[in-house]
Amino acid sequence: MLAAYITHLDCTRHNMGPHHPECPERLGAIQDHLLIKGLLDYMVPYEAPLATDEQLGRAHTALYVKEMKALAPQDGLLYVDPDTIMCPDTLRAALRAAGAAVEATDLVISGQVATAFCAVRPPGHHAERAAAMGFCFFNNVAVGIRHALDVHKVQRVALIDFDVHHGNGSEDIFHDDDRVLMCSIFEKGLYPYSGDAPRGPNMVNVGLPSRSGSDAFREAVTQTWLPALEAFRPQMIYISAGFDAHREDDMGNLGLVEADYEWVTARVMEVAQRHCLGRVVSCLEGGYELSALGRSAAAHVKALIGAD
Ligand SMILES: [Zn+2]
Q1: Which residues are designated catalytic?
Q2: Buried b vs exposed e over 176-207: b needs ≥16 C-beta within 10 Å?
């Protein structure tokens, strides 16, 4: 069955300055590699819609959504923090990125596609209920998950996060929501310096030391994530797909390679086939070395669509 490829040109217009690693070229690098590998042949393209206030308000406070909209500059750059910067096109990109997760949810639940990959930016997993940080404004994957839970009445959703950084924003939003199981592996000691003490019983947090490598990563998935997922029996699975744990990416030092992304995605797909008709929505998070990002995203998507 086909997968959705959800993106929008607006997501390339968000620009935080000439030397910022979270750059517009990231999306082109991914699309180029999906094309080269022939993976787009298995995917149906969709344009990401703009998320509504109601949709954003399921993961963020209404006041925060209002504040973000009021902050958006007419010209120049506005620094939310030293690394998280709004340009005049940022708000539209952020609304598309969150809207993509909602669209992906609708497409997968309606059965029009089996899985969906949202190639969007800004990323989302550091955005808390009421705080933008770490290149993130709205928590895209969380907006999608709450849409599945609150609108489609899905009862149990698993969130997988393999970005090299801990998804503090997703933990902030879901730590007191037992409809969600969040499984996270991240590098210890990196930004945002959270995750060591899980904030709820529904958080499976594994902090790995620097230079852990592929074997330690795979063992952590096998020993912690997979048993927790089997016990939880999710009705839908979301992935915060960050590729900055790749060994060519300067953001972290876990030392993963693209085969690890294909492997972990295949394991998640096995769980999804057993428990939830293969329903998986993946949203791009980090990944900053353009070639490694493109290759890793292609390896991930290959497993997502079950291509040989
Ligand atoms: Zn990251």
Answers
A1: 126
A2: ebebbbbbbbbbeebbbebbeebbeebbbbbb
pLDDT 10s digits, 166-210: 999 999 999 999 999 999 999 999 999 999 999 999 999 999 999
Residue type, 220: A
CA 254 to ligand 1 centroid distance, Å: 12
pLDDT score of 1: 72
Q: Does domain 3-305 have CATH number 3.60.15.10?
A: no
- Distance from Cα 303 to the centre of ligand 1, integer Å: 21
Residue 128 CB partners (closer than 8 Å, separation 6+): 139, 168, 169, 172, 173
List pLDDT tens digits, range 53-62.
Answer: 999 999 999 9
pLDDT at 308: 58
Residues 149, 59 contacting (CB under 8 angstroms): no
224 Cα: distance to centroid of ligand 1 (angstroms): 21
* Residue 48: DSSP 8-state: P
Q: Report the distance separating Cα 205 and Cα 278, nearest Å.
A: 24
Q: Tokens 């907006």 sit at which residue?
A: 143
What residues have a C-beta under 5 A from ligand 1, the ion?
Answer: 163, 165, 242, 244, 286
Q: Separation of 165 CA from ligand 1 center, angstroms?
A: 4
Domain ranges of the chain: 3-305
Q: Does the predicted TM-score (pTM) go above 0.85?
A: yes
